Structure to design on (206 residues):
């Protein structure tokens, strides 16, 4: 049985070190340099933006945020999408790699909001092809800390306006996900589904 892989990590600042890896400004030991020319940038940047780190800063600057971003605050989600080598090989042999990329990015847009997807790259020069998608985790709900302080009469933050970005369950660390269940995840809001493919009785949010 084949599996898909969904790996999400948190990043801070403009995530420059990861940008250097993704854009191959540095060459990791596991990379096959003779295949690097097959890597692709899967989406463009806004006018005046030339790379991933600049795209992160551009989204943060133009997202209408009203609070200052602290140094240790999460500003980016590093999303890696892939599958077992056997599955990827079948997709390539069927000339379906472009369709797989499009479907994967559409899932990211539907899950986190299209405006929050700021960069996407396909890597073909490692052991198995995979996508690096970069998401800015803009949250429009009230912060837990603010709500707690409000109950103690020490409210420091104003309640934000109505939610415009779907609530999602943040999954950290990588694990194999059954292919059929991942297809289900791609079709439904992530707040309504867990990794086993079963619907949740109660929505969760970050």
């Amino acid at each position: 049985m084949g599996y898909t892989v969904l790996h999400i990590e948190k990043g801070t600042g403009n995530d420059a070190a990861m940008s250097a890896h993704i854009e191959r400004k540095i060459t990791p030991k596991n990379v096959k340099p003779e295949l690097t020319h097959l890597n692709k940038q899967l989406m463009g940047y806004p006018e005046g933006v030339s790379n991933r780190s600049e795209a992160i800063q551009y989204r943060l600057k133009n997202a209408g945020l009203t609070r200052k971003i602290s140094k240790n605050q999460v500003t980016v989600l590093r999303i890696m999408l892939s599958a077992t080598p056997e599955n990827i090989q079948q997709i390539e042999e069927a000339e379906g790699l472009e369709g797989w990329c499009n479907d994967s990015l559409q899932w990211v847009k539907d899950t986190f909001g299209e405006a929050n997807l700021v960069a996407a790259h396909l890597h073909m020069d490692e052991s198995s092809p995979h996508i690096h998608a970069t998401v800015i985790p803009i949250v429009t709900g009230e912060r837990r800390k603010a709500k707690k302080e409000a109950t103690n009469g020490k409210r420091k933050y104003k309640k934000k306006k109505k939610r415009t970005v779907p609530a999602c369950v943040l999954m950290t660390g990588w694990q194999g996900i059954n292919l059929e269940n991942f297809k289900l995840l791609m079709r439904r809001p992530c707040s309504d589904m867990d990794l086993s493919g079963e619907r949740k009785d109660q929505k969760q949010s970050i």
Remarks:
- DSSP finds six helices and six strands in the chain.
- Residues 8 and 79 are 5 Å apart (CA to CA).
- The helical segments are 16-22, 52-61, 85-93, 97-112, 144-151, 179-187.
